[in-house]
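User: For my dataset I need records formatted as: sequence, then structure tokens, nothing else. Please produce one.
Assistant:
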Amino acid sequence: MRWLLNFIGLLAVGAGVFALLHFGFLGGPQVQLQREFDRAMIDPKTSASLGGNLAWRLLFDRPGQVCAVTVELHQAERRATLFELPRSGLKDGTSLSLTDYTPVLPKLGFQEGSAVLKVIEEDCSMFRRRGQRSQSVVLDFTAPQITLTSNQHYVNQGGADVATYTTSSDAVWSGVRVGPYRFRGFPQPGGTGHFSFFVFSYELPPETPITLVAIDGAGNETTASLVPARFFPKEFRHREIPIDDRFISTKVMDIISQTSELRDQGDPLKNFLQVNRDLRIKNNDFLKQLAAKSAEQFYWHDAFQPLGNAAIEASFADYRSYLYQGAKVDEQVHLGFDMAVTERYPIQASGRGRVVFAGYLGIYGNTIVIDHGYGLMTLYGHLSGIDVHEGDMVERAQKIGNSGATGLAAGDHLHFSMLIDGVQTNPIEFWDQHWIDDHVTLRLGKSL
């Protein structure tokens, strides 16, 4: 009897092995083809369009059981193989850029209009079973149009400006690109065309191009150059900042204790670097994410108000070398103005807007961020007290808190920053009514 049970067991194991070798994966196609789009740029409703600079993403139901994938495009009698990926190139979420293929498709006889993307996959069985999934798409090879309508752009290094332009109706995203930075465009209120605030960031070389960009739902992109009438390069100040164990054991350790993702490294220098370098990056990334909360309306009208009667302790884009035990251990750039009057001095909103953040923010300590609309925000850091809450509307010159020394501050002062789409810009321009008149009001008129 035992030999019979063993024989049946061997048959079951053999059948299982045969089924695995023969059938591989079960349940039909395992690969999904999904268009990958930047949610800040492309409307998901246009996700069936194909053309231009787009990427698609492969999503696997059960990763590891697919050994090869082929992606084909079909239209009537025409067929083109876009990708052939062996197992070594298959990972869940693999991005497939169509940038190199789209310009070739018209030459192969493909025309604008309906088409089908097919994903053909082979499993890893001995018999390489095949499955197939189809995705209907609309081929679109025509790029949108964009035309600059503003002129006489005078641009300061580290400063901002406003561009106005028109686009064709098929553009789903438009704005300005300056080096690696991208600034959203908006329909001009009460007028025709679009406008975009942009920043020529402090660290960019003077020859960095300023480019208008329009993108349609298929990913086709058009650019137009914005050549400044004059560009003003700027040399920023360099300073040395000595730090010691007392500063680290108090200010740095206070920040670590109030920041959940940080831990005491057991070494003063390591603790300083994880705050001054690593946490600084995370805090500034958070400010970039806040830009998505900016309202599409102007809350402000006149020049912003600086802190009155204040001594300037640090300026925008000061380059700082940090010295520990006589040696340089780090270098960072101070993005904003440090202004001091007296301890716990009343801090007022520099312009009308809505509070989008009020709380503790790492190196900035107790912080308030106010949205003034269309990507423009102001930051108030190192506060000892906060009088407003997220969502509050505040008026120009309304008290919002008190100066302090929270965060990475050696003494009581206000750290003030201005940001456009999360990119820091020199506040001096926005404190100047003459600059507002020439660069903003003149171009946007009654929109402001």
